[in-house]
């Protein structure tokens, strides 16, 4: 009754093509943005930043990146962890080599370097498809982790092979290092997530997004109607890796502060991000955020509930938590194989008709 | 949906925030994951010793000790979450039992003013208290371990390792890489050749490494392993019939869970340790009376007396002694982390004091100071007796080779000071 299109007249193509055609949606979006930018930074504390918001935003960026590649362009990738490692090590090398340059530039450059590496490992996608491509990207995952472990230059010859993020500032506020405040860390990640999501949305509904989707749906047909598969696939790898690289750079510099490649960027990370987009919804910007929220928040919430709320032993809670999260994933996928984004879309469709479904 | 979800999360968190009370010593443990079998025992020992103090003495200096536990699964991201969740509850000191998490916490504790105590693990150069003001790693660190192991081998070979071949099998992580540089320097000094064989985490797959050992026929194998990697390595060594008495593990590779699965073939396997073994100490009678019999033991007390249980207990003992010292210096019983730091710096656990605590000759003397946060670094060797199903001590506490270690520690801590922009204190 309230949530409807009726009365919301579009008088231009521009208005007709907007991301949120329904007024209520638009308001909800503006409200969410306002809360995220204007309210949360003032009330956030270290725990909320480190356990919930910062990882959520960083994983959302990674999920956006993988969604562009897998969800929009149809190229399955298991190399996300490796590409995040490229971003992390790139930003580490840049931060330590050029301390006087702003960390924002370093993070963007790290994304650029990852994009180049991603394109390199994306080359096989021109010959191989589907599961075979997944194996090729899996090779990238293992190769990159091995490389960062093996070559001491990447970790500046430190004794333990760990990389540590030194303190860097933006406008006088510490962003990385131990002195960074919760709200700065949150805001930096939020700005990156917001801008990148906006970029992703506009890329995917424009020419390049249409090309990716054409390739995804049927590459031969796409080629016949004039889509260049080389350009389309490699651009998908480049853009996706750029996002993933930025996520890796933020994960290392802003969130963790110290990292070790095998532990922080192992194959588990690749699967985690892949699960995020499968649960959230392939080929959906909202789905990337929903999937990241689900995979990051659910364990923290359950842990607080079971250990803090019920006083269970920590190991029992940890095992139960794995079971509950696993069961929920199975449940959601049975209930809606296209993920949370589809569930959300269905809810909205039903809401439009409510309370007169016929 | 996201909003209600967040609101729900907020509600549960608000409801569960622990109240400020007592002396809080969080136990960042791991009882799940690839390293859970080891982490569980350590966490139990850590919990039980504080339970003993609470039950027998009514805490330390009249203050009860609270040990909230938080599961990290040996995962750095969960470790950070645990640290953030507990740091505002009045936490005094952290002992995360993970080198990876330690690396993450080192810069944070300096800002949040919390003590980080990493006995036998963590960043070795934290021994230098001038740079690492808030971190303590007494009684021994990895480089001490590497040096003591080589000293033991020197002893076995009449003081000469020239031309010998030693292989290092290590966990390919910050933890496993720690001893590499020390061993390289020691190799140069004593003229043995060192071959490095990294094993990727978690370490179930080691066939190629042991094939290489079989081909190269080293005289000795030294291992830096943890969790499932230990069992697999000892099994593989048994499979290629590598003589067990020439196979030496660091203290994290020398517990019952590592050798029992291999059975009789593990007989003779050696490992370093920085504390005593077995239950032949008076403190266990008290534990029995006050903790185990009343049913207050952590997780039912099934691991009491194991190597890792003893190590967890020993860590708790050192922390409790530091708390006692801090109370003495500050003159108050409810101490702050700053005061505890003072307590750690002036810590002096003499052999007499250990005897009073019911653990005679259990550990080396620990005497810390403003610039020495690592103690003497003494360690000893233990050997597995598969038939008797127990470890026995086969050497006395040995001093490491400070001639090699001191410059390495100075170099590494200086590098950290430069990287993090710290001006070393005057001591």
Automatic annotation (TrEMBL), chain A:
Transmembrane segments: 27-44, 50-69, 76-95, 101-123, 130-148, 183-200, 237-259, 271-296, 316-335
Gene Ontology MF: a single term: branched-chain amino acid transmembrane transporter activity
Protein keywords: Cell membrane, Membrane, Transmembrane, Transmembrane helix
Protein location: Cell membrane
Organism: Paracoccus alkanivorans
Keyword Methyltransferase in record: no
InterPro entries per the UniProt record, alphabetical: ABC_transp_permease, LivM-like
Major subcellular site: membrane
GO cellular component: plasma membrane
Membrane-topology descriptor: Multi-pass membrane protein
Official protein name in the record: Branched-chain amino acid ABC transporter permease
UniProtKB/TrEMBL annotation, chain B:
Pfam families tied to this protein: Peripla_BP_6
Residues in the signal sequence: 1-21
Keyword flag Signal: yes
Segments forming domain Leucine-binding protein: 25-388
Family: Belongs to the leucine-binding protein family.
Keywords: Signal
SUPFAM superfamilies named in the record: Periplasmic binding protein-like I (SSF53822)
Annotated protein name in UniProt: ABC transporter permease
PANTHER family: BLR6548 PROTEIN (PTHR47235:SF1)
CDD domains: PBP1_ABC_ligand_binding-like (cd06334)
Gene3D superfamilies: 3.40.50.2300
